[in-house]
TrEMBL record:
This is Lipoprotein. It comes from Legionella longbeachae serogroup 1 (strain NSW150). The lineage of its organism: Bacteria, Pseudomonadati, Pseudomonadota, Gammaproteobacteria, Legionellales.
Length: 70
């Protein structure tokens, strides 16, 4: 009986306590969408830097490495 109760409790914890991969992907997408052109670029991952660059490009604040505005 104890074993059954522990099994049910463990199963319930695993099902409710862990984020699904879809939930993690949605949270990551929301986080990346929240980054703006003015967000710090220090210590960012490649995905974060890409999101910041996309934000700058969409806002018309993108410049080439030469400093020439597009």
């Amino acid at each position: 009986m104890k074993r059954l109760g522990l099994s049910v409790a463990l199963l319930a914890f695993l099902l409710t306590g862990c984020d699904s991969t879809e939930m993690k992907a949605r949270k990551k997408a929301e986080y990346l969408a929240s980054l703006t052109c003015y967000s710090s670029k220090e210590g960012r991952t490649a995905d974060e830097l890409q999101a910041i660059a996309d934000s700058c490009f969409k806002g018309g604040r993108y410049s080439k490495s030469s400093g020439i505005k597009w």
